[in-house]
Every structure is written in structure tokens, then in C-alpha cells.
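Incident log, entry 3
Record: 3-hydroxyacyl-CoA dehydrogenase family protein (271 residues)
Problem: checksum mismatch between cached and fresh output.
Input:
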Amino acid sequence: MKVFVIGSGVMGSGIGQVFAMAGHEVTLYDVKEEALKKAMEGIRWSLQKLQEKGSVKDVESVLSRIFTSRDLSEARDHLVIEAVFEDIKVKSDVLGRVSPLTDEIIASNTSSLPITELSRAVRNPERFLGMHFFNPPVLMKLVEVIRGDNTSEERFREALDIVKSLGKYPLPVRKDVFGFVVNRILFRLFTSACALLTQYTPHEIDYVAIKELGMPMGLIMLLDYTGLDVNYDISKEAERRGFPFKCDVLEGMVKSGKLGRKSGQGFYDWS
Ligand code: CAA
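Fresh output:
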């Protein structure tokens, strides 16, 4: 299978890596050469880590299956995964341009936008669906597969099989609601954790999440890890759709350039 991933940020590059590790030929697309270079460096780092742990045998052979491109027309006849940032206009624009090029499945990695709304930009929307990976895609086992109102049952099942063939656990989501399944839970937890920031430090809140709730990473740290800009955009979409995800401090932090792990500063110092 030939896979074309649109957007080479943390999610796009991680998803591309997952497909390449499963033996598929992957093209990572981005508008900026610099972003593609950074993505390839991140993938190499990750593959080397996995090789140290014994879960990847040959780093170079996985890398040889990953190509980069700044030309959207190279998506011709590919399965497409869209992983650009959470903006309905940006996503719709790119989906509209890519969908005439291929008859294969087109999936969005959106975590907060409605699949049915995005499908309006896609030609032949019965092959459009959500394929929501979690960060970091290489290590997280669960992938939500979301059926929008226009997705056909046949393509939905095909997507579930594709996810299974990657060695992941597909969670079928047949109701296109805000947050799908995982984020309906997670964003409520984020809201509670954020509300506690007026009384407790990020360390204290995260200590509770890890030691008492048994989470692998504290909730405040997870906000940093997934990106404060990403979470801020999601909070605005949540508000638009009447879902209770609120974290007031995010706006000021994002405006002052604190984006979490990716910028070196967030609730924690990642530099
Ligand atoms: N590739 C390969 N190796 C990686 C890696 C990657 N992408 N990321 C981390 N590792 C490695 C680390 O370098 C480390 O290696 P060493 O042992 O050699 O140092 C090893 O994995 C273990 O990592 P850590 O020591 O940092 O810590 P950890 O054991 O806690 O594992 C984690 C890291 C898997 C990220 C874990 O903390 C975790 O599961 N965190 C929660 C992640 C989560 O909930 N993600 C979902 C977020 S929500 C989302 O994504 C969607 C959304 O819609 C916003």
C-alpha cells in the first residue's frame, strides 16, 4: 500500500513512521522543507530508540520506505492521511485539493473536528473517515476509527482492518461526537486539572495523577506534551460545540509563545 501523509508535525511524522514500520511505502508531505527535515530527524531518532529496545531490526530499511514531498499531486492513487493543524478551513482546503487525485481511503487525524463536516470538502465522501492516532503514535496502541454520516460501512471496515494490520488496536467510533471516545474522557480530566492550578502546582497535580490515578504521565505534563497550542485550539472548538473543556491559562501561554514541549517552555521547562 502507498500512503501519503499530509503534514509532517509530531502526529504526521509519527503516523508515517508507523505505516513504514509495517512495510508500507510512505510519502510525507509538508509545505516547508525545514519541517520535512525535522520530521525525518525525529523519525530516525525514534527508530534508533526502538532498535535499542529490540522492536525495530533495521533502521535504514524502514527509512528507505519514507519519502518526502512538497508537491500534493504526488498523492495520486495513494491512501491519504491528513494530519495538519486543527483548523477546519485549513483541513477542508487540503482535503478538497487532494481528493480528486485518488480513489483510496482518505482519513483525517483530527482530534476535535466533526468528520461529517470535513467530509463536505471531499470528493466521493463515502471513503472519508477519521483515523485518530494518539501521541506518540509509534508507542500508543489505540487508534480511533470514526465513521461520519457519509462514510460507507465497507470503507469503515476496511480502515479498521488497516489499523489492525499496523499492529494497533482499532476502536470503532460510530457516533461523530466531539472528542469521539478517548478525548471525551481526557478533556474532562484536563478541565479538572486546569481548575486546580489556582491552588496547586503542576507537580502536585501530576503527582496525584501518576501516584493515585495510575496514569503514565501527569495531566498537566500531558497538556505540554501534546502541545498547548493544539489544546487551546481544541478548547475553542469544544466551546463552539458545547463540550465542557476549558483551560483558561492556555490562551495567555500560547500568546506568549509557550507551546509546551515543542517550544521548550510550557507548564514545565523542557529546554
Ligand atoms: N519513539 C521511540 N521511543 C520513544 C518515543 C518515540 N516516539 N517517545 C519516547 N520514547 C522512549 C523514550 O526515549 C524512553 O527511552 P529510554 O528508556 O531509552 O530513555 C522510553 O520510550 C520511555 O519513555 P519515557 O522514559 O519518557 O517515559 P514513559 O515510560 O512514561 O513512556 C510515554 C513515554 C509512552 C509517552 C508515556 O509517558 C505515556 O504513555 N504517556 C501518555 C501519553 C498519552 O496519553 N497520549 C495521548 C495523548 S492525547 C492525544 O494524543 C490526542 C489528542 O487528541 C490531543
